[in-house]
Amino acid sequence: MAHEIENIMWYGDRPWHGLGVEILEAQTSEEAIVRAGLDWEVEKRELFLADGTKVPGHFAVIRTTDNKPLGVVGGRYIPLQNKSAFTFFDELIGSKEAIYETAGSLRGGKIIWIMSRLPGHIGWADDPIEQWLVLSNAHDGGRQVSLMATPVRVVCLNTLNAAISSAEVKFEMRHTSGIMDRVIDAREALGAVTDYFREMDGVLKLLRSYSMSDQEINSYIHSLFPLRVETNETLPDFGGTLNVEFGPRIKKYIEKVMELHERGKGSDIPGVKGTAYGAFNAACEFADHWQPVRGKPGGEIRPAGQLFKKLDSIWFGSAQRFKQRAFNQAVSLVS
Question: Cβ atoms within 10 A of the Cβ of 144, count?
Fold first, then answer.
């Protein structure tokens, strides 16, 4: 299987995948685009069949540096160049404040992403949570341009990216003729990102203030996983019921989250274990670092072919949905 990572640069703690180019200091946008191997452009070209017949309404997205095809798109698709994505970040945050610590391309250049850390942090002095923005762009037409606020707990590198009702967590833009107008809209929405981090700070502190009994923690963790129930079985008042069947695989997952609550990274910080915040972080650590990707075991350095799937899962897929469910369940305890 070909590597799904094409290029990646990183600064700071070694990432779990152990791949890419390490840099010794955070980069400006001009430096980062080169170090991450993203200093190339794409263009739309007409498609033709082998006999020379033109394919109407469809175009190939081609990387101009090596004529590599990245995808097939429709006529309305407008590419967002990598340089424009970095420029967008510079203008969004302020070129003097934008700090690029990781960026790269996946699936042979079809997907690019940029992570920029905002100044300051939320959380506590002994348990800081950094404020990150992640921009993801697809050159194959497979997804919209996405800008997402991403809280990252420093002690364990858990991504706590969960939507809250009072603030937006993600903004998306289609690859159409109005994409630059939408970029301007997203720039204006930076205030909404600031609101999100402020609201998340308040919610996390509320979760940390809520003490849970062993039974509550047990019930909370079980509630995050699907039950194996016969179709003719009813479960009235399931809220406090645990005498139902879980499959053997799910039982192992539950045991792992239980273990992470007791001995996971950051669980030894005073005031974390035995709280709704501690239980939520155990779920996030499981999703980010242990939840399998298509049957692959967690808790280990994955081959490059699995990294794209894991990143995609953490930011947009099953791991993100699991964390959202864990967050919603935790918030329901304190509301």
Answer: 16
